[in-house]
Amino acid sequence: xxxxxxxxxxxxxxxxxxxxxxxxxxxxxxxxxxxxxxxxxxxxxxxxxxxxxxxxxxxxxxxxxxxxxxxxxxxxxxxxxxxxxxxxxxxxxxxxxxxxxxxxxxxxxxxxxxxxxxxxxxxxxxxxxxxxxxxxxxxxxxxxxxxxxxxxxxxxxxxxxxxxxxxxxxxxxxxxxxxxxxxxxxxxxxxxxxxxxxxxxxxxxxxxxxxxxxxxxxxxxxxxxxxxxxxxxxxxxxxxxxxxxxxxxxxxxxxxxxxxxxxxxxxxxx
Amino acid sequence: xxxxxxxxxxxxxxxxxxxxxxxxxxxxxxxxxxxxxxxxxxxxxxxxxxxxxxxxxxxxxxxxxxxxxxxxxxxxxxxxxxxxxxxxxxxxxxxxxxxxxxxxxxxxxxxxxxxxxxxxxxxxxxxxxxxxxxxxxxxxxxxxxxxxxxxxxxxxxxxxxxxxxxxxxxxxxxxxxxxxxxxxxxxxxxxxxxxxxxxxxxxxxxxxxxxxxxxxxxxxxxxxxxxxxxxxxxxxxxxxxxxxxxxxxxxxxxxxxxxxxxxxxxxxxxxxxxxxxxxxxxxxxxxxxxxxxxxxxxx
Lengths: 270, 299
Known about the structure:
Chain A has 270 residues and is an all-alpha fold. Chain A has helices at residues 10-21, 46-61, 71-88, 93-96, 99-109, 111-118, 137-146, 150-155, 158-165, 168-171, 174-186, 194-209, 219-238, 249-260. The longest helix of chain A is centred in the C-terminal third of the chain and has 20 residues, at 219-238. The radius of gyration of chain A is 23 Å and the shape is globular. Helix content of chain B is 23%, strand content 26%. Chain B has 7 helices and 12 strands. In chain B, helix 3 (200-206) crosses helix 4, helix 4 packs across helix 6 and helix 4 (213-236) crosses helix 7.
């Protein structure tokens, strides 16, 4: 049974963050005087919230918390915490899209862990706006999008995940996320800079998705498409160039059109 | 995708005949309305619809060979999450007919739903001809139907708070509008009207039920005030809002675009450069808000 979690308005969340940034000690709680609830839905019990807090705190402890963490520890924490938060928060996608709910998790329920993971300098990590940037929302959606493909999640860095998930044409479709991420993680060419490769191939994928309905593709077809785009990117970036996309030229098309007696070119779409 | 030119030949729209979707309600199939506000927020929604494609016409207009594999698929997008899900695409029968039946999982939909049917290429037909679709998944035909599952934000989510307990909120203010400036974010998920618990009179007026004239006046005033804030934000963000011809449904961008999408010259007002321009700006803003239909009408 899915549940609803408390919300905290942006104004209240910002005020709490400001206090923490000003030196107030962050203190986890399961309720806040400024919280609200959605009008319908079964409310999560305080014990469930405490269970999430305990599980996440243990996980953070294994990754160096409360001491300052290394980059490797932070990545390890994110990957393990994604599974924990998804298990504890069995919520609808609509609920998972509620920014005020995520603000509650960071400023009320887990402020010490939010502070440990990201400090106080970046408001987006605390007061949810872009859910691909919020400390806990992004982990929930990582777990939801990747599902059983946690091995792929473990192979990608934060910036790589951001590149994939921030673009809704890609990040909004879990099947594309999985196929693209796995193809990227398994791509073994090392003669091109990774960052440039991801930037370039993401653009190619977006262009392809402008006229390909990825939902109609099997996972195998999607993987083939992603790998092909990666090959094209790597070839372009390494300077080896691409073959002509139209090996037979436009003359053949004109001849075929003339033979059929059909109209060519752009078709009017409603 | 629907308004872009494809890099290959596509057939005319009339090649596909897509009957409107029906949905299962109390064990009976009923025509899917534009709004399904009775949806309980968690039940699955079952849809079905017959589709027929004039395959000879399609092949003639796209130059695809007879052997081309064509698929028909359904996917849907919810404004509440921005996520897309789909049912597996199935081959189009040699007759060109298909009967679509899909189940939309209730825990993964919400807000405004767009259900899209596509006829796509299942595999590379191997013609090698430029201008002829060859990528698997290439969209040849498309049909979309929208249904609203949750009420729109005529008045958006309202919450009462003790403003005195919240730094940053003046406890003498009656209300505060929280609003995101992330234009792509869902409007319902990011905008809140906070009412100060100290203003019990306003709280009573906002609650449902019969209102007396004073409560109606308070509500008119509140509606006007909130709309005025939104209009001012739209004007301040005009350049960014108008960068896109169309914002996705249910987004902040779409709502603000709606405020600007009028030929009323009042909305062309510039922000005041000097402080002595503030009164005139406020008056014009108030007038424009009322002209848009918000607040107490002038007698």
